[in-house]
Amino acid sequence: MAKAGLNIPEAVLLLRQGEVIAYPTEAVYGLGCDPLNYDAVKQLLEIKSRPESAGLILIADDFSRLRAWTDEQVPIQREQVFESWPGPVTWLFP
Questions:
Q1: Residue 11's closest CA among 28, 73, 47, 29?
Q2: Over the chain, what is the mean pLDDT?
Q3: Both 8 and 34 in a single domain?
Q4: Full-model pTM
């Protein structure tokens, strides 16, 4: 993991290099990586001592960034989701 106190461009560079970063949320620090980088995801799972089968949380500013990880065949309450997006709400998508 990288040093504390990174600015956004530094964090982006580390993510693009496959690193895991820590970032503040409204309540705790989160750990994150590029979800398209398998090695980074593996490293994140190892740090968290979490089995792959347990899954991970994806955070995005727009639903279009999550489409690849959702099941479009399963109906969701899109209107309710988009009324609160972005915001401090956790939505679970199949």
A1: 29
A2: 85
A3: yes
A4: 0.75
